[in-house]
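Sequence in, structure out. Go.
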Amino acid sequence: RSRRIANAKFTSERLVMDGRLDEPAWQIAEVNGGFLQQDPREGDPATQQTEVRVLFSHEFLYVSAVCHDTTPEKIVSNDIRRDFDTLNQDYFTLLIDTFNDGHSGYYFAVSPGGSQHDRQVSEEGRAGNTNWDGVWYSEARRGPDGYVVEMAIPFKTLRFNREKQQTWGIHFYRRMRGRNESTYWSM
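Output:
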């Protein structure tokens, strides 16, 4: 599979993290979809669609995910703690490699109930600092067709080079515990 690119669009609008994508900026953002299964049938299309949008302002990286589900009663969200157990519930994850070197980055996950899980990753993702608690904002909102996640990550939370043109590695992942399905956007 070829390398995928998510283009972040600039917005001067300050977005409200409420799990609603009703600000005009979300309407201009590119939609990133086409997730594939990691489990149970690696490489097959995801059984449920996920649409991810990426925006940025002078202060924040904004990411939203519309996690469609044709049977929302199968969504599992039972741990409301910070750094929730990712094995036993649904969630959407953003992984960013701010230096685009494949060695280190940041992991941000949000459950359908709005719980956050974050960590720094290193050694090409094999090691993670789960004690890292970055400053970031998110909200999730459940609906009759699944759930929506909104994230706002302040740039001051992240380490990256200060060049005017930025190219970061980015990856999106979705876990559907009630279906025992894991999906990814790019590998």
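Check: The mean pLDDT is 91. The longest strand covers residues 60-68.
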